[in-house]
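Hi there. Long-time user, first ticket. I'm pasting a complex I've been working with (about 691 residues overall). I'd like to know whether the download I got is complete or cut off, because the file seemed smaller than I expected. Thanks.
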Amino acid sequence: MSKKFLLVILMVGLTLLSFGKTKISVWQFMMDDNLSQQVKADFEKANPDIELEIVQLSWATGFDRIVTSIAAGTAPDVIELGNTWLATFASQGVLRPVDDLVDKVEDNYVAWNFVEYQNHYWGFPWLLAPRCMYYNLELLEKAGLDPDNPPKTWIELLNAAAKIHALGPDIYGIGLCVGELYSPYQQWFLPAVWGNFGHFVSPDLKKATLNSDPVIETAYYYRTLKDYALLGKESELAEAFGKGKLGFFFAGPAYINNTQRDYPGTIFDVAFIPKPRENYGYHASFAGGEVLGISSQCKNIDEAWRVVEYLLGEKVAMQITRTTGEVFPTKVGIEKDPWFESHPLHRTFLEQNQYAVPFPPLAEANKIEQLFTNIVEEILLTNTPIESILQKYNEQIQSLL
Amino acid sequence: MKFKTKYNLTTLTFLLPWIITFIIFSAYPIIFSIGISFTDYSGLNPAMNFVGLRNYINLFNDEIFLKAVRNTFIFVVGTIPFTTIISILLAILINSKMIKCKGLFKAGFFLPSVMSMVVISTIWRYIYSADGLLNHVLGVFGIEKNTGWLASPDTALLAIMIMDIWAAIGYYTIIFLSGLQSIPEELYESASIDGASSKDTFFRITLPLIKPTLFFVIAINTIRSFQIFAEIFTMTGGGPLNSTQTIVHYLYITGFRQFKMGYASAMAYVLVIIILIITLIQQRALRSEY
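Hi, the file is complete. Here it is re-exported in full:
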């Protein structure tokens, strides 16, 4: 009898305890199931008053799930977003402005320009994924180039690509992305514009400047590269690179582990993205990355903030880096982590971050990104005069600003 | 209670679960989406302003939408005749006495139909890639191509059409096969006794008797082809340069990526009208048989 009574008391106690917890849901892309479980357990141990629900989204359908959940009024409390999506979501009132919370951690993290839109902060920079130049050491050597000195300027890259391209019919100097959304402009074209001190929109974000001289020069250079290029989707270029058929290509850190695992015979390295000239421009890269936002539908801001603060922390972010090898924490001083000593290729990506530029915070960023994909494809896949391509899209972008 | 009333109530009770499900998951969304096609609803923001026919009018000034309509028609016109003819021929071949292992052939051709289109598309992406199987085969014949088939605006739509024909023929072959097997054997025996040639037999017996099946296949294939999405989503995302943009894919991009749900809904209803007209034309063309 007494055992039964104790059991009932225990059950009631546990039930009451569970009712006392605040549930915070996090929808994210970067943590796999194992890591999510570990993070959940660690967080709940340190924060017994919060029940953490972590949902993993896939890149193929995650965006749509976020949109439909918001439309249905069932948005998660904390949402991981690609940094290029932030302005669009902020402009639609989906995210809560977090200026009051940013003050608490601003000095500890970098890349705050990822989350700024119309003079407010709408989230927290979480993970970084810049692009670098991958190059095949063996092909450089075969082409009579110095593998220890990869190209640092546009002309050096053009010459190196031409020499590698001449090695055989099945060998290509450089890989340039076409045939899919985003990668054609992100991997190099737009960063090349930035590196040439160009912009497609004025600093006040009101005037399209795609027809300006730096952009025109970049577009001409890009078209010249086509003569020595394999054109295809990013995954196709990565595959050709892995098979030792490609001299150079531009991509994020994800292909380090993939290439080493799938093509162990390929000897490659990564370097900063070349700049226009030795004494002009800079090694600009696309600042890809992930941010954490708090939904405007969230009712427990304090608890959501505690979750965000935990996820931002070095422990979780470095776990994601070690697990995926695709992204790096935004924590100040993360380069001192011993992991980077044993991962020199990843370290180069981390250093490339100093030249990384985010997409301008525009409400119509999604549509402009699609136009940029078309711009690069029109440059590479047609013979339409460069000036008329840029003028046409300049007008289209202007109509969206 | 009268028997008839009791009978009706019982019937309604059994139908109620379906009726409720239909109202919640079909009728309400249809009516709601018709409504939002006249608004500027974004999907993210609950604000919804009535814009009248503006979404429908804008569609006819939208270059990408017009290109998507053109591509969709090319896809439909370019795949349906091939799918239909190849399916009929395969069905006749499998149905003939020449083929021994009929089950094996049926399973072989039907296999792509039970695979997810996403899986099929992913496999064909490798075939069509710059360094893929197709370019290797062409290389053997001295034809070099430094672009993937899906990365060139000249070949991308054609490549998807070929894949789609390959993926669809198995399903329609099975349908034609069942149509062929319903034709009484005596008709062929009589024709044979009368000295009819194979050509006469096909055009005077087989084809007229499988016309209902033919209409069914063409009608459902038309509707399916107008709604092509998974192939485009997986393989090209509508590119390059919108050369593979189709109505449903553009509708998806507009609604879910550009947050113009009202405008996307208007596209959906234009597509409904197009499919309705084409299906009615097809039905009229084969009306004499019904």
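A couple of notes from our side: Chain A has a mean pLDDT of 91. DSSP finds 16 helices and 15 strands in chain A.
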